[in-house]
Amino acid sequence: MAINGKFYVAMDEVFPYGAYLISEVEPVRDFDKSTRERMVQQLDKQSGLPVWSVSVLDADPAARKNEKTMTVKIAAQHQPVPPAPAAGMPFAAVEFEFLTVTPYVDDKRGRVAYSVRAREMRAAQEEKPARSKSEAA
After folding, report:
1. Predicted structure pTM score
2. What's the CA gap between 55 and 71, in Å, rounded?
3. If residue 55 lies in a helix (H) or strand (E), which one and from where to where?
């Protein structure tokens, strides 16, 4: 069996320890249609919806330093509104719905990398419990 293109994954499979917003939600630039003077927002190829991006911190303690943050792109008609952080916390915990992962070859690093997309972002529903290494395997 060959998997071509993107595949759907559950939030817990990508972020088993949770994800925390570390940037604003921003429009994704369509580099083919934009000019220096005029920015054109990228549209999702399947839905035709505008694409937004947000950077998140992966709370997995075993994640390598260069893999602690990642960008998630969200296809949505309107700019997603990030939730407020919980009292006393610097970052808002978020969950993504309808996550897809698309593998690609990162020529600069010579390895497989992943593009992560979602259709919805919302405040995390509950605190993620600490997992042991045997549970994560």
Report:
1. 0.81
2. 4
3. strand 51-58
